[in-house]
Design goal:
The structure holds 2 protein chains of 2 kinds. Chain A is an alpha/beta fold. Chain A is built from 16 helices and 13 strands. Classes of the chains: A alpha/beta, B alpha/beta. Chains A and B meet through helix 1, helix 2, helix 3 and helix 4 of A and helix 3 and helix 4 of B.
């Protein structure tokens, strides 16, 4: 596999003891981190021309390096921007550099704010996405599914399987994730049954999600790929917005993804969520506490007034406490459901969407996109009409099935 | 002989000046060399591990970014040994450079808090200023107890 060269623009990782983790994450996806070498005179010029008057010399160096990359003075396949968590000066530089590189080059870029606890495992999916975009542009350009393919999304909460034939979804399977392999096998069986096809007829298989490696290796998948690129591709495919800009939001069971997409290929993305309070897990807990099925939470929320209930789910424990207090104070289940949806949407808005450029259409995908109250809350915050495509809960599986068709012999 | 903290701590010129006038420079090079030469560590390029930002908690609270605390784990012990300090303001990158402005502010504050003799100088921009710059450093170092030359 060809080595992907990732240029690092950073301040602080070597002093935080995490440079080794960054290198390790890159190595594990056959990539190499390098620091762009530039002359002292270029640092002064690059920094002055960029126009952001920061005090920290390492940030000035990062700015000058970014300019050298954009101007083509230094060759790279992708860019990784890393600065200390909680540093305001670095946060401004990080965001502006990501935007600058995104707008002025074709280089995929990802940024991350680290602490001394950051591990290679935390960085893996981001690095994998960076290298996928750099390495597989041709594959990601695929717009039509061909042949008979299977896509499996082994997620942290649920496992999804989709069978596609000649650009049509002909079978789906959805189960809670318990034992990773067993859940995948069962979801696939459901999808095969619905599609009316046998496993041996499948021409290509793609896997994504947290369990992608385990499931992919077991099934001899043709494509094992992280969910950032897969979901972007699946989202624009299902929403029929394969050309031009779009923004994909996936509020997952364990983490959230916000991806700025151009022509179906992610440009910048953020992945994370400070606490489970900003994830689908909090909505599951809310539904349980209200005594309704998760599928009923959305319609319930649409009937409520979120502003009537003070709730901030920054932390799932405190969020649940607010929920219990609100119910004890006599708030209606509808208002509490709406407040929970608003709270999750607000956390994602404040923590993640600030880091990507929101361009319409905004496409929400994943299981939580079926909770109408959450979609409405997100639309209200962003002041846009959020698009939820059909089969949005199967986004990873659809994206995998779509891209896997590129591996069919003769395709 | 007095232990003199130099700022920027990476300045080889300043380190050399302090040594030439008979004192011991406290510079980043020595601290980093010690880290790099410590056997058993594998955390390139500076051999700073995630444990070091925790050591930095002695000088900066946990809400301070890890990069600042990691740097303080290097510079903090030097600050505690310092008996005098020379601080060069607005130094050119080629003279010596310290990457993080917040760490730099903290270092300068902690130096002043120690109540040790501190020489503040602006980085020279002309030859004439350069001569005055070296003369000021020489005078300061000579006046320190036990100064040579």
């Amino acid at each position: 596999m060809n080595l992907v060269r990732i240029a690092q623009l950073s301040c602080g990782p070597e002093y935080s003891g995490v440079q080794r983790e960054i290198n390790e994450a890159a190595r594990s996806v056959d990539a190499e981190i390098f620091f762009p070498d530039i002359r002292l005179a270029d640092i002064r010029e690059g920094f002055d021309l960029f126009g952001l008057d920061v005090r920290s010399p390492d940030l000035k160096l990062a700015i000058a390096r970014a300019r050298a990359l954009v101007e083509g003075k230094i060759e790279a396949d992708a860019v990784f921007i890393a600065t200390c968590f909680r540093c305001a000066e670095a946060a401004i530089v990080r965001n502006e550099l990501r935007r600058y590189i995104h707008e002025n080059s074709r280089l995929p870029v990802v940024s991350y704010s680290f602490t001394e606890r950051t591990t290679a495992g935390t960085l893996l999916t981001r690095m994998e996405a960076l290298t996928t975009i750099a390495r597989r542009r041709a594959l990601l350009a695929r717009e039509v599914q061909e042949g008979l393919t299977l896509g499996v999304d082994s997620g942290s909460s649920t496992t999804k399987a989709v069978i596609m034939r000649d650009n049509q979804i002909i079978g789906t399977g959805w189960l809670p994730t318990t034992a990773v392999l067993k859940s995948a096998e069962d979801a696939i069986d459901i999808a095969l049954k619905e599609a009316g096809v046998k496993r041996e007829e499948i021409q290509a298989i793609g896997t994504t999600g947290y369990g992608r490696f385990l499931v992919g290796e077991k099934m001899h998948a043709d494509l094992i790929q992280e969910e950032l690129t897969i979901n972007s591709k699946g989202a624009v495919y299902l929403a029929d917005r394969q050309h031009g800009p779009s923004t994909v939001i996936d509020i997952g069971g364990m983490d959230n993804k916000a991806i700025s997409v151009q022509d179906g290929i992610p440009g910048t993305f953020t992945m994370g969520g400070i606490c489970a309070g900003a994830s689908g897990r909090f909505l599951e807990m809310t539904a349980k506490r209200l005594g309704v099925d998760i599928t009923e939470l959305g319609p319930l929320a649409l009937r409520g007034m979120g502003r009537e209930v003070p709730m901030n789910s920054y932390c799932i424990v405190f969020g649940t406490q607010s929920l219990v207090n609100a119910l004890a104070a006599g708030s209606s289940p509808e208002d509490v459901a709406a407040a929970a949806c608003h709270s999750v949407a607000e956390q994602v808005f404040e923590q993640q969407l600030q880091e990507v450029d929101i361009k319409e259409p905004v496409i929400m995908v994943g299981g939580t996109s079926l909770i109408q109250g959450l979609v409405k809350a997100m639309g209200d915050l962003l002041q846009v009409e959020v698009v939820v495509p059909h089969h949005s809960q199967y986004i990873g599986a659809v994206g995998s099935a779509l891209l896997a068709s590129g591996f069919i012999k003769g395709s | 002989m007095v232990k003199v903290f130099i700022y920027p701590t990476t300045s080889l010129i300043l380190s050399d000046l302090v040594a030439r006038f008979g004192h011991t420079p406290l510079s980043a090079a020595l601290q980093i060399r010690e880290h790099i030469q410590t056997p058993g560590l594998e955390s390139p390029p500076l051999q700073i591990t995630p444990e070091d930002p925790k050591k930095g908690l002695k000088w900066a609270a946990v809400e301070v970014p890890s990069g600042v605390r990691g740097r303080m784990s290097l510079y903090g012990p030097m600050l505690e040994q310092a008996e005098a300090a020379i601080i060069i303001h607005d130094a050119d990158f080629s003279f010596g450079c310290m990457g993080c402005a917040r760490t730099n502010e903290l270092i300068q504050f902690l130096l002043r808090k120690r109540g040790i003799p501190v020489l503040d100088l602006r980085y020279p921009r002309t030859e004439e200023e350069g001569i005055e710059f070296v003369a000021a450093i020489k005078k300061f170092l000579n006046e320190l107890a036990g100064g040579g030359a």
